[in-house]
Amino acid sequence: MAASDDGRLAIRVIRLEAVVQGMALGVMSGLAIFLATIVLIVRGGPKVGPHLVLLGQFLPGYAVTLTGAFVGLGWGFAGGFAAGYLVSTLYNRIAMRRGTLEDGS
Question: What is the average pLDDT across 38-65?
Fold first, then answer.
């Protein structure tokens, strides 16, 4: 360590790409809802997915049907993208404010 470091170790963090993080979380969320719906449709039974049906209260157009699986895919992607983008943006702003942000290139 150089004398100019003054005995402290500066912590550097890499900047997160908000769009990439949003896309990754969006794809995972959308596929999770899509696959959960498809599994319940394939399993069948007299009462298909009583808990998953409740997503229809929060996701307009969603139902435990094939069409609903694609609607859930879209809503899952949108919600996941928004969450990933928001978390990455907040992370970058906090890191920049603390002065620990390092250019990722």
Answer: 88
